[in-house]
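User: Please predict the structure of the protein below. I'd like the answer in structure-token form so I can feed it into my own downstream comparison script.

Assistant: Understood. Taking the following sequence of 127 residues as input:
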Amino acid sequence: MQPTFTLVQARALMPALRQHVSELVVLRADLAEAQVALRRGDQPGVGGLPEVKALEARLHEDLQRSIEWFGERGIQLKGIAPVIIDFVSELDGETVLLCWLEGEASLDWYHAPELGFMGRRRIPERR
């Protein structure tokens, strides 16, 4: 059964969540730069093909650890480029997903599970 978070509980997890996301974003960018440089025939800043393959493996391992970290806490990782996070919560007796998108300053959005990201709305202040 998926845990349900209050807004206070979800926001309390944000500093640790941001740390995990920051590490993932750096690896994601390093890998993208290396892959483009290799396609162009340049020597990427991270080295040649063996280094890129090692970076890919590291990204995969770190991604797996991040996914496990989120999952162990009942946090839903919906995407990695950009990073999209959902917390199962409740609003007015209805199940909702508190939603955070990479780059947002705080956890201020929610949506109904069946609407997905496109149905995002600001969390009412009374919450």
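That's the full token string. Residues 7-122 form one domain.
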